[in-house]
TrEMBL record:
GO terms for cellular component: RNA polymerase III complex. One of its GO terms (biological process) is tRNA transcription by RNA polymerase III. It comes from Regulus satrapa (Golden-crowned kinglet). Residues 444-689 form the DNA-directed RNA polymerase III subunit RPC5 C-terminal domain. The lineage of its organism: Eukaryota, Metazoa, Chordata, Craniata, Vertebrata. InterPro entries: RNA_pol_III_Rpc5, RPC5_C. This is RPC5 polymerase. It comes from the Eukaryota. Residues 146-169 are annotated as: Disordered.
Length: 691
């Protein structure tokens, strides 16, 4: 109270918010002027602006009659810039440096806290600023003087040379013709830093008209700095509580937040963090920490948090790398953002960081030069990627910062399998974008591997399979009992003669199930993943009950049919890859997880109306056996069925055919005179997944 009495309020001032010049008002900061330039005698000769970049260039006249102006120095500068001749291209037509050019740069990126104020008749009128530009002298005329000097020297040196000497200096020129630019190369060029700089330079200047301080137009525009209506309805932004009003005047600085070390405590306190939804808590933690074991994540979320809910949420913002969770690239680099180092768009940054994460799923070590050579990104961006998830080791490379989390892999085999399917899809995308070679796809062997191996032993796979069987056993038993009850009700009129039942004998297949998961050997000592001694679910001839088999066949047939309707020709390798991606999108415990072999998949392809095309590949081909098996949908019911069948017949005789041969064969068989564009369309529609 004593302090308030010592500092009494002597006047209250009404504050009004003016909106007439909203998003139009800029503040120009001029440099300290020399004695020969004052506010009264400076004249703006011209002004121009680039609106998108908020870049301004002003040309001001210098008072050459001022006693502080050095006339001899001004004449010398004009002579160096323009030379002795005077024409329209001269910078200083008066042969005297009588003007100065100023270029602008942004003084602050966030100007929301700044406003221009006008005080009049006991009222304070505020207009928010749209930008603050600092004007600095431009010395481009010095570059012009240097260019003139070099031209004069070249002319003097070349004047004494004879015609014979000029002929001796003739050099051979090699003419090269550039190849047509591919779509992938064009996208890389458009996203490059040089292209962005070129686009900024190509923006045209917009010339402005300058009005002086005492001009009638300037006086008219200054009236817009005053609020047009003094009613409370026009100034509702100022009807705030003291704390809200203070926050409007002094919002938190973005620059200060970026300068703080990245840690959850600097974003929100733990008490504030736990008031948010679980998904937001996990996103904030992963975005700041970037790499975290699942046990540490649970401990930060507090006791009593459901681990299943955490697993469901963390998969939305992170990917599993060596048993640990690493934040996704699109969380760190949202859409419509760019690199602070090179200006590269977020889409390119996400692809580069995904490549680094994928490399760490293959090996504990990554070499920085290899990453830079593949991604074609600047060294600063690559270093940021590596620092997010690894530690630099001298003469070795970058090592993943956390050890292999074997406990999480053992406890959650279904999550591990799902993440492996996702990584297979990411790998396929990276192979297409970066054209990865075999040395990039195969992990390098380390002489001394201190961490746990990425491969899982056979005993561990059996244990994980047993855990998975226990999870699915209850559901399978319920389905079997339900089916058994239905069979009893249907056969109530007649008893089943068990001795007369003839079971179809099938040859024992020695082939292994298709690799649709990370767990091989699921059937070691098991019957379809179930122990014979467990429950009353008795298998017949080592197979699941008929109802389960029918459901599996229906699901598999639906997948094969929809796949071949989208891509009419597929190799077995590509079909298996698409099937793995389909499994990754299914919920745990789905019927397709019971185990699908290569033979079952191929038989289902033939049952859905597809045919195997025996393409005569050369014997020395490096393709795998699955890549040599080609299947095609014979009749899709569209207008290209006949054309597609002719093409398949052609490729069943030769694996490489010229375009003109294809065009002639199609014209003869289909009775149509197809041009080159129509042939290309038929090839694209029929073989979009192969050629």
């Amino acid at each position: 109270m004593a302090n308030e009495e010592d500092d009494p309020i002597i006047q209250e001032i009404d504050v009004f918010l003016a909106r007439s010049l909203l998003e139009k008002l800029y503040l120009f900061q001029y440099p300290i002027r020399p004695a020969s330039m004052t506010y009264d005698d400076v004249t703006h000769l011209s002004a121009k602006i680039k609106p998108k970049q908020q870049k301004v260039e002003l040309e001001m006249a210098i008072d050459t009659l001022n006693p502080n102006y050095c006339r001899s120095k001004g004449e010398q500068i004009a002579l160096n810039v323009d030379g002795t001749c005077t024409d329209e291209t001269s910078t200083y037509s008066s042969k005297l440096m009588d003007k100065q050019t100023f270029c602008s740069s942004q003084a602050a990126s966030n100007v929301s806290r700044y406003a221009a104020a006008v005080y009049k008749k006991g009222e304070l009128h505020l207009t928010p600023l749209h930008g603050i530009l600092q004007l600095r002298p431009s010395f481009t005329y010095l570059d012009k003087a240097d260019a003139k000097h070099r031209e004069r020297e070249a002319a003097n040196e070349g004047g004494d040379s004879s015609q014979d000497e000029a002929e001796d200096d003739v050099k051979q020129i090699t003419v090269r013709f550039s190849r047509p630019e591919t779509e992938q190369a064009r996208q890389r060029r458009v996203q490059s830093y040089e292209f962005l700089q070129k686009r900024q330079a190509e923006e045209h200047w917009v010339h402005l008209h300058y009005y002086g301080l005492k001009d009638s137009r300037s006086e008219h525009e200054r009236q817009y700095l005053f609020s047009q209506g003094h009613g409370l309805a026009e100034n509702t932004e100022l009807i705030k509580s003291p704390s809200e009003y203070l926050m409007m005047l002094m919002p938190p600085s973005v620059e200060e937040e970026n300068d703080k070390p990245m840690a959850p405590s600097n974003v929100l306190s733990m008490a504030q963090l736990r008031t948010l939804p679980l998904a937001d808590q996990i996103k904030i933690l992963m975005k700041n920490v970037k790499v975290m074991p699942f046990a540490n994540l649970l401990s930060l979320l507090g006791s009593g948090t459901d681990a299943t809910a955490v697993l469901r949420c963390v998969q939305q913002v992170a990917l599993l790398v060596q048993g640990n969770w690493v934040v996704k690239s699109d969380v760190l680099y949202p859409k419509d953002t760019s690199s602070p180092h090179s200006g590269v768009p977020a889409e390119v940054l996400c692809r580069g960081r995904d490549f680094v994460m994928w490399k760490f799923t293959q090996d504990r070590w990554v070499v920085r030069k290899e990453v830079a050579a593949v991604t074609k990104l600047c060294p600063e961006d690559v270093k940021d990627f590596l620092e997010h998830m690894s530690v630099a080791r001298i003469n070795k490379g970058w090592e993943f910062m956390l050890p292999y989390d074997e406990d999480f892999v053992k406890k959650h085999p279904d999550i591990v399998q799902r993440q492996q399917m996702l990584w297979m899809g990411i790998q396929a995308k990276l192979e297409k974008v970066y054209n990865l070679l075999k040395e990039h796809l195969t992990p390098k062997k380390q002489e001394a591997q201190s961490a746990h191996p990425l491969l899982v032993s056979g005993e561990q796979r059996v244990n994980m399979a047993k855990a998975k069987v226990k999870q699915n056993y209850g559901q399978l038993e319920k389905e079997f009992q339900k089916q058994k009850a239905e069979m009893k009700s249907n056969d109530a009129s007649a008893k089943m003669d068990v001795p007369n039942i003839r079971i179809k004998e099938e040859p024992v297949s020695v082939e292994e199930p298709m690799d649709t998961s990370a767990h091989e050997g699921l059937n070691n000592g098991l019957v379809n993943g179930l122990h014979p001694a467990q429950g009353s679910m008795d298998p017949v001839n080592g197979h699941l009950p008929g109802g389960c088999i029918d459901r599996v066949a229906q699901e598999l047939k639906a997948f094969v049919s929809s796949t071949f309707k989208k891509q009419f020709v597929l190799t077995l390798s590509e079909l298996k890859r698409l099937f793995n991606l389909h499994l990754a999108s299914l919920p745990p415990g789905h019927t397709l997880f019971s185990g699908i072999s290569d033979k079952m998949l191929q038989d289902m392809v033939l049952d859905t109306g597809c045919k195997q095309i025996l393409v005569p590949f050369p014997p020395q081909t490096a393709a795998s056996p699955d890549e040599l098996k080609v299947y095609a949908l014979w009749e899709a019911g569209d207008t290209y069925d006949q054309h597609r069948q002719v093409l398949l017949e052609i490729f069943s005789k030769n694996y490489r055919v010229r375009r003109n041969v294809i065009q002639n064969q199609l014209s003869q068989e289909c009775g149509e005179d197809l041009n080159k564009q129509e042939v290309d369309r038929v090839l694209k529609v029929s073989f979009c997944s192969l050629w």
